[in-house]
Amino acid sequence: MNFHPNDVQRRARVASGILFLTIVFLTGSFFRAQVLQHSQYALASEKNRLREVPIPAPRGQIYDRTGAIIAENIPGYTVSLLAPGEDSLRAALVRLSGTIQLSDAGIETVVKRFRRNPNRPAVIFGDASFDLVSVLEEHRIEFPGLIIQSAPKRYYPDGPAVAALVGYTGEISEIELGQKNYSGYKSGQQIGKAGIEKEYESRLRGQEGVRFVEVDVRGRVVREAGARDDLSPEAAPPLYTNIDLDLQKFIVSVFGDSLQGAAVAIEPKSGEVLALYSAPSFDPNRFVGGVKSSYFDSLMADKRRPMYNKVIEGRYPPGSTWKLASAITALEDSVVKLEDHMPTPCNGGFQYFNRWFKCDGGKGHHGSLTLAQAIEQSCDVYFYQLGLKLGISRLVAGGISIGSAEKSGIDLPDEMTPVFPTAPATEYYNKRYGVRGWSPAVSLNVAIGQGENAQTVINMARFYTAIATDGQAAHPQVVRGSSEKERLFELDSANMAGIRAALAGVVLRGTAAASRIEGLMLAGKTGTAQNGRPEEHKADHAWFVGFAPADNPKVVVAIMLENGGWGARSAHIAAAIIQHYLKATPKQLLNTEGN
Amino acid sequence: MKQRLVPDFTLLALALALSVFGIAMVYSAGQTDVVTRVTSLWHKQLEWFVLGLIAAYLASRASVRMLDWLTPPVYAVTCIVLLLLVFIGKGFGTGASTKSWLAIGGFRLGQPSEIAKIVVVLMLAKVLAARRDAPKSLLDLWQPALVVGIPWLFIMLQPDLGTGLVFIGIFFSMLFWSGCSWQLLVLAASPGISLVLAVSTTIWGAWFLILIALVVWYKPYVVESAIIIAANVVMGGVAPLVWEKLNPYQQRRLLVFLDPGSDPLRSGYHVIQSQVAIGSGGWLGKGFTMGTQKRLAFLPAQHTDFIFPVVGEELGFVGVTVALVLFLVLFLRCVRVAGRATDSFSSLVAFGLVSTWFVHVLINVGMTLNLMPITGIPLPFFSYGGSFMLACWIAVGIEIRISGEGRGKADTLVI
């Protein structure tokens, strides 16, 4: 080797320089990673070790107008599993199925939930029983990543009595997750599926909290708490409704187990819905946290359709209850006056060209009647002639203006739009039957509420709130809040009083005379509508829409009994409901200003 | 007349500081949420450290003459042991896929390749010191090449890519210290450079032009020039074939070095988690034993190859800087020792030993930040491993001896 001291010193300087520069370079690289890119790596490290376990927020309580509880929350449990990957999740679930009952289909559902949100614990049971939880707690050590979370569970103390009204909650579905109005939602969360729960989902939802658990590289939960401060869930504020739970329960008791149909009670001036019931009902509590398929299948198989809200989804020919629309249209257009007679008196029917239109209302013949009397007796012959006098165009236009072609606007989901001709009427019928396919005879049917006319119970009730007041009607409102009023028709006060007197006459001496109540002026109109399915050979649907007291209406009640046979039967039920309501001290809305 | 040696206390203090720091990190590496065998390994590391101190004392008592005299037989024995390992070696720990362990009757004695590094340094120093001048042509390099080549071949057969790389590092740095010109070093290294650059034809083409220019400038013998150019062409062309011959895990490691994001959950996982551990440490770190990447087992081999990320995660940039500066000061001190040595053999030994450490630090620390490929090279004084700790301290003992025999007083010199 070249060992001259100068050369050695030179090489030592070169070597020292290389060493120095290398260490400086390494130090610089660490400075870049640890100081300049720190936040990025710190985040990656947190992501590695922390998993978010959602803490469900209690849904807002739902109260009736007096502060009685319609929907509340009771303690419950959810069971979920935190896994680093799909394979290990599946393996853990298969092992779990040895301890608790878990079907293959159940495992697939959990895996699907996991795929949606791999960083959240996959929900196994949305509503676990205490027994199940205690079994799992015993075996907890065998299942790292198993998360048992106490979660508020929805409970409806009156169950089936309020089902049509309040709806129920359930786990958000795959389809709903893809919808825009559920954009902030995550798989496994509970949402309102029907009724108030669905309509007011955003107000009832609350703010989900988060608990952070620490996991190791295999996804095993190492620390349950304290890894980072939890975010507490925020309960949603309570929701106050206009419902009178006492009246609601009375209606349920009147329907009992045998009757099938719809009932709604509305405060006419404000549009506040006091009660709303669809019979038969179902138990919404059994839907919370996942409905058992045996129960759901039995509901779907029931021909009386318990899951179908007959107040807002059912559409029935309104029958004679609709005669008031024809009468009011005629009075509004000054075609007739209340005391006017029609040229042909009723002798059990009406000959129009080669067709005989019979009068179902009377026991033989009504004779010559005034409009007021025709309403009382529900005389078809009078209304046939009124229909001819008005003409189809004005009949249809009048029907549309009183709201027969649109939804009532009640604050409940899934309301159906009624079936009704569109204006102008001639165009509608030309399109439907061809220009030569129809004749002015359609006016006869339309005038008595038949033909292309199927109304929801809530829509008919709304129309009668306008009769009970001054021609204006609010949109029916279940939850407290102001509702816009709309004018459906305009009559002078003499005519309004006359109409109401005629409706009072229906109960005093007319078609609903059997439902007369001493000391109470009840007004209303019966209706009998042909069963849409004649092949069932079942009785007709029975309507009654009315209000009381007749001179100062405080409540409008609409009753529709499927296969009820005869409108007077519905009138009887309505009378009992109204009597119950008015006899009890009128309930003022609970003052919630303090809250 | 007996001369009393003054121990190089600065060098000793630096090595002690690094060892204490290192053992503390091995202790911390065992502090995981799920207890593993790593938890108690720091006891063993402490035992090996004590053994290392004894070995260092003994090494410092042996004169350089004696080392010089002992070198050839020790080298021969080492080569035989390495050859035997190819047949009877066992895989274990981080070296599970290599046959690097010497075991007798199921009892693991250690990894002879760690001691072999020192022996190769000694033998190479003896060969180079025997020459009057520095090697001037490639033909002059046949002896040194053979000294390193034989054990290197056996090591590569284990196969232990990391230790093989260290041998190459030792070879070139000691040639440099013996006075070889840089042009000759580049020409000697050129086939290897060609092999690496063959990944891209364009880059290799550019390199080849530079090589031609260098040959024209340095003017080696015609035969040599022809051999160099031929070797480069073969390596550039043969490289893809060699690539085929590599083990899948070696291919993966090289590929991951080129692109760590390519398969983050498998091969690139180590590098990414290492970088996350280091980066999340910040200025001051998460606190001693508190590193979450390590605690929750996101960091692999946290007590051996990836112990430096534990320093980065728990003690932050400050801790990393302290460790790197300790290494730098130790290295500069050892270069001084080499520069002050009274004879060429001890000078070469002193430089060879420090360059061995340097290659380890560069590759190990570099790979934790993805600046170097993952080759499984331990970090001196830090990584858990008995043979390596022992080898490091034997080297410290030799350095102290050479420092004591050197010109001037060790303690009057500034590093």
Structure description:
The complex is a heterodimer of chains A (595) and B (415). Chain A has 595 residues and is α+β, with helices and mostly antiparallel strands. Among the domains of chain A are: 51-100 and 108-240, Penicillin-binding protein 2a (Domain 2); 319-514, DD-peptidase/beta-lactamase superfamily (Beta-lactamase, 3-Layer(aba) Sandwich), CATH 3.40.710.10. Helices cover 36% and strands 18% of the residues of chain A. In chain A, α3 runs antiparallel to α4 (104-116). The longest helix of chain A has 32 residues, at 5-36. By secondary structure, chain B is mostly helical. Chain B has one domain (9-412). Chain B has helices at residues 9-29, 41-61, 64-88, 112-130, 142-157, 161-177, 182-197, 201-218, 222-245, 248-258, 269-281, 292-295, 308-340, 344-368, 386-405; strands at 102-104, 107-110. Chain B has a two-stranded antiparallel sheet with strand order 1-2. In chain B, α1 runs antiparallel to α13 (308-340), α7 runs parallel beside α9 (222-245) and α13 runs antiparallel to α14 (344-368). Chain B starts with 8 loop residues before the first helix and ends in a 10-residue tail after the last helix. Mean pLDDT of chain B is 86; it is low at 410-415. The interface between A and B is large, with 40 and 53 residues.
Rg of chain A over CA atoms, rounded to whole Å, is 34 Å
Shape of chain B: globular
Q: Report the structural category of chain A.
A: alpha+beta
Oligomeric assembly: heterodimer
Instruction: Give the strand tally of chain B.
Output: 2
Number of helical segments of chain A? 20
What share of the residues of chain A does DSSP label as strand, in percent?
A: 15-25%
CATH class term of the domain at 319-514 in chain A: Alpha Beta
Calculate the mean pLDDT score of chain A and round it.
Answer: 88
| Number of β-strand runs of chain A | 19
The third-level CATH topology of the domain at 319-514 in chain A is Beta-lactamase
CATH architecture of the domain at 319-514 in chain A: 3-Layer(aba) Sandwich
N to C succession of SSEs of chain B: HHHEEHHHHHHHHHHHH
Q: Helical segment tally of chain B?
A: 15
How many domains of chain B? 1
Distance between the first and last residues' Cα of chain A: 95 Å
Q: β content of chain B, as a range? A: under 5%
Average of per-residue pLDDT values of chain B: 86
